[in-house]
Every structure is written in structure tokens, then in C-alpha cells.
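Let's sit down with a protein and look at its sequence and fold side by side. We need material for that, and I hope you will provide a protein of your own picking. Once you have written the record down, we can walk along the chain together.

***
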Amino acid sequence: MQDVSACPMQATNVILHAFDWPYHRVAAHAEAIAAAGFKAVLVSPPMKSLRAEPATSWWQRYQPQDYRVIDNQLGNTEDFRRMTAKLRSLNLKIYADVVFNHMANESKVRSDLQYPSAALLAAYQAQPAHSESLKLFGDLSEPLFTEQDFVSAFPIRDWTNPWQVQHGRISGGHEDPGLPTLRCNQHVVKAQQQYLRALKAIGVSGFRIDAAKHMTLEHLKQVWEPDIAAGVHIFGEIITDGGASREEYELFLQPYLEQTELGAYDFPLFHALFKVFEENGPMSELVNPYSVGQALAFDRAITFAVTHDIPNNDVFLDQVMSEQSERLAYCYLLGRDGGVPLIYADLDTSGICNQAGQPRWFDSWQDPMLLRMIRFHNRCHALPMRCLEHSNTHLVFSRGETGVVAINNGQDERCVNLPAGEYEDWLTMDGVTLTHGHQPQLRLPARTSAMLIRAQTPTA
């Protein structure tokens, strides 16, 4: 079999979500990330958030104290600059997670709504040279936001009421006052735009909008004006429980797609994948999910098999796929045409273990099978997709004249007749056999898949 790692790299778009990785760790692994076939790296929010010894929980990264400096448990502005320079030297794009809906819940230590707090402003002034070295923009002697920059405090109670979802506070319960929700006013929008321009100046070329579901469309439109959106890839996190016809889709995702040009997490497709691979739904639902409203348009979708919220938030734990299902889902996502695949890898944030008793997603981006799938994606990127055959338990599709993807989600072996030609199976899953001849055949044991590359015909 051909050495997959030796295949020439073509332009592609697979993003590694280096969830909660320190910035120096991203830089240290940059060469390996590039060699693995990734084109971009998404990092956790680069802003000021709580630091503590020995560590803080991952969700603290999503509670901003200040946009004007990068200083959190993952590193500071200098670390971020070094990481960005390293990634760019390897032609890897850097994507930043940004949190614009709310600021940090600091109600346990103070009652005012000044950000950063008076104590943090005093800390800046106590080390002026250091603080200035970390500054992205603005005047660190003044607060960034004050009470007039926040909407009235009330917890979201009806999660199907768009006004409540977009004006209320995300709260952990009746005893939790929640995250102070920013108002869409001229001062807030200007500060957020200054922050984005500063990150772009460092070299950031993509943005994930955290909690985009909770922001008004007017706020999103004002912040992402044309000069900021130019030359960058932007996508929002709008969690839904399914695709077209589902209430959350129609209330939140559909208006976002209709009224902005931004990308979005493809939660409709994720739920279709979960239904098929985890709940034994019919594979026919994955033949063309976009045509039935179960996937986003190819140029708007961020596709995934797991996001950081799914294993790390109790409310989403029932959406964690089995390892086998997740592998088949990745084969589909990286084999199909359309969307930008996002590959999740953490440092054992959730504490969930795999079948071998090891942290489930710890450096999962280095899994050899996943790397072969990424190589297939890179080789077949932008080639047209055509369904060759399907049933309730299997699906076979081609990628131009170059590749074939076959997935058997059933409990019995499946034999597939292939178009004429010589093929190489880049996955080589246990038990999968490929035979050539007048009629090439592929045998797939239960719950396995193959990614085939057609051998090049020598030119005369």
C-alpha cells in the first residue's frame, strides 16, 4: 500500500480545535499539526480571564474580564504572538474563539458591573510596563465597560423565547445571578471591533463566535462590519436540537442564516449523524441531508462529531457518541464534499475515558486512523460527490474519479461492488478486504468503513 503520509498536500480546510491547550503547547506541536494535514488551529478565547493556582476550570476561559489584554490560564499576549508566528510560518491559519455576549460572573466578590474590576485596574497600574506589553488596544487606566453597557439582569427561563435567550443571563440555576449580558450599544460594539482588529493585526484569520445564539442579529451585524469580516472565516455557535422543522432551528438558526453571511456549527448534520450511527437510523438519511434540511449549505457549515460542550457540560452528555460511532461519523464527514471539518482534541478536560481506560480525546488528533481520513479529505478536497449505492445499513459514494468511501453501519458483513479500476484502501480497518479483477469488490465487516483511492493510470 502507498505511504499515505507521502501524498502531496492540496489546499484544504480541516481545523484542529485545540481545546483549552496552553498557547505554548500549540506552538510546540505546530510542525506535527501541519504534517497531520490540518490547515488551521482554533484556540480558546485570547483575552483576560481568571488565573488561579494551580489552575482554573475550562469554563473560566469563557468569562471575559477584559478584551484589551491576553492574560489567562493558557498564556498571555506574548505567548499568543509567538504561537501565531509559529503557526503562520508553517502556513497554518489561527482561529480565535471570541466571547461577546457576556462578561465574567464575579458576583461572589463584588456587586458592581465595572469591567475590568477596580482591583484589576489597580493591578495594571501596579505593573505599568508589564501591562502595556500585554495590551492589544485602549487605555488600561480606564474601565472597558461600566453598568450602562449591560442589559437588565434576569435569568433565562424560557429557552424557546428568542427575546429572553438574547437579553437574559445564562445562569446555572436559581441561586446563580448568571453572566452579565452586554448591551448592543455604540461603546460595546466599538470595543469589540477594536479587539477583532487587534487580533487580525497579530495574524488571526478566523473567528468562532461563542454563544452566538444569545446575541441579537443586530449586534452581530454591527460588530462584523465588512472591513472586519474581510479576509477572515467567521462562524457562530448556535446550538439546536436538529434541522429544518425543529423549533430551535426555526427560532434561532434559520434567521441567523437568512440575515447574515456568517458560517455556523452544523448541528442539523450532527443530529443526523447521531441518529444514524448511535441510534441505528437509516443510512439513507446521509445520502443528501442538505436536500431535506438536515445539513447546512456546503459554504456555511462547520461540521463535527463532537464539540467542546458535548463532553464537558452535563446537559449534553447524552450526545457523546461511542468511539466506534464517532469514528464512522468522522469517516463520513472527512469523506464527503461540503463543510469545514472541525476535529476536537483536549487535554482530558472531561475526564471521560476510552475503551483502553485512557483519556478519550487527549491528543486524539494524532490517532493514525483519523490522520488517514484527513489525508483522504485533502486528496479529494472539492471533488464532486456522487452516491453509488445505499441501504438502511450502508452507504457508498465516490469523490470524482479519485476516491470512494464505503461505510457499513449494519451488524452483518456487507459486500460492495466497485467501479472498475485499481484501488488502495487508506484506512485498512480490521477485517476489511479489497479484491481486484474484472469486478473489484470490497468486503466490510459490521460497523466498519473504507476510504479508497483509485490507482493512477500510467500515461503513455
Notes: DSSP finds 14 helices and 18 strands in the chain. Residues 16 and 41 are 5 Å apart (CA to CA). The chain has two domains: 4-382, 387-454. The radius of gyration is 23 Å.
